[in-house]
TrEMBL record, chain A:
It is a lipid-anchor. Its main location: membrane. It catalyses: GTP + H2O = GDP + phosphate + H(+). The gene is rab20. GO terms for molecular function: G protein activity; GTP binding; metal ion binding. GO terms for cellular component: Golgi apparatus; phagocytic vesicle membrane. This is Ras-related protein Rab-20. GO terms for biological process: protein transport. The keyword Membrane applies. Its cofactor is Mg(2+). SMART domains: RAB, RAS, RHO.
TrEMBL record, chain B:
It comes from Echeneis naucrates (Live sharksucker). One of its GO terms (cellular component) is cytoplasm. The gene is tgfbrap1. Residues 23-300 form the CNH domain. CHCR repeats lie at residues 566-731. Signal peptide: none annotated. Transmembrane segments: none annotated. This is CNH domain-containing protein. One of its GO terms (biological process) is autophagy.
Length: 263, 877
């Protein structure tokens, strides 16, 4: 990620949260590098700076491991969007979101938006094999079969990642339905003390994705980016109203005044 | 291979510090400029002068010279030392007591109030490097006290310390760092940020300080580096936000520092170096008994229990070169770009460009052309660096030499490909696309010749379609260098184009002609002959046209003549004189004919000479065909049609001359009649047509043609003439000579003529001419039409007369209305002459519109001697 080095000040922060092995890093990889590749268990956290039109959006990939749990609320501080990620083949991963990760978002912005994302949809849903971002998908279809097995090799991972069934391309049992995710979204709103009517609708904010095929990945990120734009603009406005005196601004203002008096 | 970013250089050896005393250990260090202070566990402070020595090979080493050592008299280890250089004071923490000593003498400074400036019960302290206070002779210091859950802020002066603030903390703090108002604290179970001015605090993350020693390190303005669970080095700013991703240390890190762009950390046996730019581990140095790692004014100093070392960063450029040498392009670029802030702008740009170029060549060597191209573009690579990799592509005349030190490790393409022809081919294809893209951009400025010549060579070698496009557009290909190359690949057409580009049209033509004639083989264009004709057609060098037109005309006069006929007429093209062309074409009969046709029929030049010449050529052709036996009727008909059309349409040819030419030929009667018609010898012409050819239709057509642009009376005259000819032959006197059938034919012809073209004739005249014995029935159509026509004419003229009359009246009325006002006559008005009233509407108006009785006027006229006056000026209403 050489782009990170460009030391641009990010305008807004998006954070990926979720249990280990649900595919947070893979989602980010798929979105930023357009491929599905080996990832190792994330240590601590990593982030990527995305240029979205004139804005810089930093996307934080957090570590799902219990060990780094304490850092979560720091990553979430000031976040404009949080992506709560679970694994559609693993009921526990959804439960963890509510039990462990939801409280980390207390430090996020008060108007933070939440997305509930079920990853690994390709394992349960044949339609998720058809990627929506067509570029560069077909050629790594072949290599990702092996990729998927890769996390198993890591001794550091206590939960069985993915499943051996994916090797044979079998359709796995879907443990988390879309309705479960919608219900969780409702509970998140309640936890935040938000009115369901005035918040973004659950249908819009619950996604099922596949980092492996790219299914829904662009849609997820781009939907969120569009939704955080107001947040960016507000932040920029706040910065403009900072106590620092902007000479340019003053000049413009005074220019206007002289104009109006002479009329 | 990792990066070699740092080198560990010994600064103070064990001998110099403690000699052979085994139990003495280093406890703390401080460095301030050249001055190095070392605190030991036997309560001594050692003062060294540290000098940097650079060997002739550029290798850095340190020589330490012991200045002083001082026993503090507390029998406890010296826990911490901090210099306040502006005050010339060293702040010492020993046995929980914090006090000041003189930096030079190491003598305890007596307090201004007496007794010495001391703070007791101190567990840790830190200096604020970004103090809010602006007094330069005062140092701000944060202190942790062993008894209370508080942080105290002190001001340190030359001879006293002053408590300025005390804030309580939720738990007992055990490590701290301060920046501005912000204290970063390690508490027993977590880290937090505390604003000592407002008292506001911000939790960072949990950490068990009893399990692992916490690290709180200020690294820049309002940013701290903290040891986090799982052996992470976390970054946190004053707002409690992490702006950089964490680095992954080992669990047992003792000390850490930032030496941009690296995070250096020390654990029990290693120094680890991570990049802050990509969080990757870059270098690991083995370091036994590591004890202290601290940075002083950008200098990273380490200490084991017995000796002191300096961690010297290698020059950035060398690090980058090391990375590039191991093909770690991304990292090299990240490092370069990350260092932008630390290097002067112009120097950075040069460095950055070079790194980009080198990186580009690394990708190129791995045949990753997309990446390579992007890097070349960003690095503004002198494109000749790339071309020079390909043997023989740069022109011999090119002044280019590769940059030194070299941007890559390849001698040439063969070296790079190791004999793999497929690789060579891919590289060539890449260069083709790359040069094609850059040749018209500023990248090629200053070396356009080299670029275009190289491109031409590649195109020729690879049999690329764009070769011709290159040569057809503006290009800078070097002639001398390209000729052998194009010849080698039989690209003669292209070579011709190149000659043309270089103004050597003659050479180009010679080459092409050789190809057309089959002396050279080049199948680029199957229509090369037509191309040459086109080329000559627009060629501005007249001499060349004269020289090569001959060849073209011999090959195919019908197309060859385009050289002359299709020549664009513009002021930029030298004009070819028609006379010269005609002279030139003398020996190419057919071509000459085509040329004259072009002049006369297409360009419609009104010059007698051309018209006569063309007519004569047509005539000669007809005559030639006539002499052939058997005659080709079809050809003859065509030739005659052309001749006839020419004779009819043109008014410029010399009639007598042509007439003379065809005098002797009995087969060309029709043509002769036409020519006679031109001479207005209509009777002769009609005589031929009627009596010799007996072609009445042609005779009629002749009349119409000959009078086509004349007034109708002329036509009438001609028709009468024709009628006369018909009737003359019909006279009884002539009937004997002309033979039986002929008379009947002529009669019928005359009748037909009258019936068909009755409207042209003057019927009365015709009737006088006709023999009396012709039946009325025979001439019925003519007569009927004649009567109707005359009737029609009569009535039409009557209508015209009536209309003209009424128009005249209308005009009179209008005129009157314009000129006169109405004259009112009533029974109450009196006549000016007799003063009686009017009883009738008839009045006479005197000048000025005065009505009077008619009889009064008549009376007056009778009486007046001057009656003219009155008659002239009166008007009847």
């Amino acid at each position: 990620m050489p782009e990170v080095s460009k030391m641009k000040k990010p305008d807004v922060k998006v954070v990926l949260l979720g249990d280990m092995n649900v595919g947070k890093t893979s989602l980010l990889h798929r979105y930023t590098e357009r491929k599905f590749k080996d990832t190792i268990s994330t240590v601590g956290g990593a982030f990527f700076l995305k240029q979205w039109g004139p804005y810089n959006i930093s996307i934080w990939d957090t570590a799902g491991r219990e060990q780094f749990h304490g850092l979560g609320s720091m990553y979430c501080r000031g976040a404009a969007a949080v992506i709560l990620t679970y694994d559609v083949t693993n009921w526990q991963s959804l439960a963890e979101l509510e039990e462990r990760f939801l409280s980390l978002t207390d430090t996020a912005n008060h108007d933070c938006i939440y997305a509930v994302v079920g990853n690994k949809a390709d394992l349960t849903d044949p339609k998720a094999h058809l990627s929506q971002d067509l570029d560069g998908v077909s050629q790594d279809q072949t290599e990702c079969e092996e990729d998927r097995t890769e996390p198993q090799v890591l001794s550091a991972c206590p939960t069985p990642p993915a499943s051996p069934a994916s090797l044979s391309g079998m359709i796995l049992h879907k443990q988390v339905t879309h309705e479960d995710a919608l219900a969780l979204y409702g509970r998140i709103l309640r936890y935040k003390g938000l009115e369901e009517k005035s918040s973004l609708p659950a249908e819009k904010m619950c996604f099922e994705t596949s980092a492996k095929t790219g299914y829904n990945v662009d849609t997820l990120f781009e939907t969120l980016f569009d939704l955080v734009l107001p947040s960016i603009l507000r932040k920029r406005n706040e910065n403009q109203e900072s106590p620092t005196v902007d000479l340019e601004e003053c000049r413009v203002a005074s220019g206007k005044r002289t104009k109006s008096t002479c009329c | 291979m990792s990066v070699k970013a740092f080198e560990l250089v010994p600064a103070v050896e064990r001998d110099l510090l403690m000699g052979d005393k085994a139990r003495i250990n280093i406890e703390c260090i401080e460095c301030c400029g050249k001055r190095l202070y070392v605190g030991t566990n036997d309560c001594f402070i050692h003062h060294f002068l540290l000098d940097e020595v650079t060997s002739s090979k550029g290798k850095l080493s340190y020589s330490a010279q012991k200045k002083l050592q001082k026993y503090l008299g507390l029998k406890k280890p010296v826990a911490e030392l901090r210099a306040a250089s502006a005050l010339e004071r060293l702040i010492v923490l020993c046995d929980g007591i914090l006090f000041l000593v003189d930096m030079e003498t190491l003598e305890t400074v007596p307090s201004a109030a007496g007794g010495g400036a001391k703070i007791r019960g101190v567990t840790a302290f830190c200096i604020n490097e970004n103090p809010v206070n602006v007094d330069p002779f005062c140092v701000e210091m944060g202190i942790l006290s062993s008894k209370r859950r508080t942080v105290q802020i002190y001001m340190v002066y030359e001879d006293r310390v002053q408590l300025v603030k005390e804030v309580t903390t939720p738990e007992q703090p055990c490590a701290l760092s301060v920046d501005g108002y912000f204290l970063c604290l390690a508490l027993a179970t977590q880290y937090m940020i505390l604003n000592y001015s407002t008292g506001a605090f911000q939790d960072l993350f949990p950490y068990n300080s009893e399990e692992r020693r916490p690290i709180v390190k200020r690294i820049s303005r309002e940013e701290f580096l903290l040891a986090a669970p799982g052996g992470l080095g976390m970054f946190a700013n004053a707002e409690g936000v992490s702006q950089r991703a964490p680095v992954n240390w080992s669990e047992s890190v003792i000390g850490a520092a930032v030496c941009f762009p690296y995070v250096v950390a020390l654990d029990e046996s290693f120094i680890t170096i991570h990049s802050m730019l990509d969080q990757q581990l870059k270098q690991t140095l083995s370091f036994r008994d590591g004890h202290i790692l601290q940075d002083f004014e950008g200098k990273v100093i380490l200490a084991s229990t017995k000796a002191v070392y300096v961690l010297v960063p290698l020059p950035l450029e060398r690090q980058i070169q090391d990375l590039l040498a191991s093909h770690r392009v991304e990292e090299a670029l990240t490092l370069t770009e990350g260092a932008q802030k630390n290097i002067p702008k112009d120097k950075f740009q040069i460095l950055h460009k070079r790194i980009l170029q080198q990186a580009g060549f690394i990708h190129f060597g791995q045949l990753q052309f997309l990446e390579a191209k992007e890097l070349f573009r960003k690095g503004q690579l002198d494109v000749r660096e790339l071309i020079s990799l390909y043997p023989l592509l740069l022109p011999a005349s090119s002044s280019f030499t590769r940059c030194h030190p070299p941007l890559h490790e390849f001698a040439d393409l063969n070296h790079l490909a190791q004999g793999d022809q497929e690789k060579v081919l891919r590289c060539k294809k890449f260069l083709i696309s790359y040069l094609g893209e850059v040749r018209s951009t500023e990248v090629a400025n200053g070396c356009k010749e080299d670029v275009d010549t190289a491109l031409l060579k590649l195109y020729a070698e690879q049999d690329h379609d764009s070769l011709l496009d290159l040569l057809a557009s503006d290009n800078f290909c070097q002639l001398a260098d390209s000729v052998p190359w194009l010849e080698k690949y039989h690209k003669y057409f292209a070579l011709g184009l190149l000659y043309h580009c270089n103004g050597q049209d003659s050479a180009a033509l010679q080459l092409w002609i050789q190809v057309v004639d089959g002396d050279l083989q080049d199948s680029t264009r199957s229509d090369l002959y037509e191309y040459i004709v086109d080329f000559l057609c627009s060629c501005s060098n007249v001499d060349l046209v004269w020289k090569y037109a001959n060849w073209a005309l011999q090959k195919d006069p019908n197309i060859g003549i385009h050289i002359f006929t299709k020549r664009p007429i513009s002021k930029y093209q030298p004009h070819l004189k028609a006379d010269d062309v005609i002279t030139y074409l003398g020996k190419h009969g057919n071509a000459l004919l085509l040329y004259l046709e072009h002049l006369v029929l297409e360009r419609r030049l009104q010059k007698e000479k051309f018209h006569t010449h063309l007519a004569v050529l047509y005539l000669e052709r007809v005559l030639l065909l006539l002499t052939e036996s058997p005659t080709d009727e079809e050809k003859l008909t065509k030739a005659r049609e052309k001749l006839q059309a020419m004779l009819r349409e043109s008014n410029l040819y010399r009639v007598q001359f042509l007439l003379g030419k065809m005098e002797n030929c009995e087969q060309l009667l029709l043509e002769r009649a036409t020519v006679l018609g031109k001479l207005e010898e209509h009777d002769k012409a009609l005589h031929i047509l009627v009596h010799e050819l007996k072609d009445f239709a042609s005779a009629e057509a002749f009349c119409i043609w000959a009078s086509s642009c004349r007034e109708s009376s002329y036509r009438q005259q001609l028709f009468h003439l024709l009628l006369g000819v018909y009737l003359d032959g019909n006279l009884p006197g002539n009937s004997q000579t002309a033979g039986g059938g002929g008379n009947g034919d002529l009669k019928m012809a005359a009748v037909d003529l009258l019936n068909r073209h009755g409207e042209v004739f003057d019927a009365a005249r015709v009737l006088r001419m006709l023999p009396g014995d012709w039946s009325l029935q025979l001439l019925r159509p003519f007569l009927g039409r004649a009567v109707r026509a005359s009737m029609h004419a009569c009535r039409t003229s009557q209508i015209a007369l009536g209309l003209a009359h009424s128009e005249n009246l209308q005009l009179l009325h209008d005129r009157l209305k314009e000129r006169k006002k109405p004259i009112f006559v009533s029974e109450k008005k009196g006549c000016h002459l007799c003063h009686n009233t009017f009883s009738e509407p008839d009045v006479v108006s005197l000048p000025g519109g005065i009505p009077v009785h008619t009889h009064c006027v008549a009376q007056r006229v009778k009486d007046s001697p001057t009656k003219r006056q009155l008659t002239n000026s009166s008007n009847h209403t």
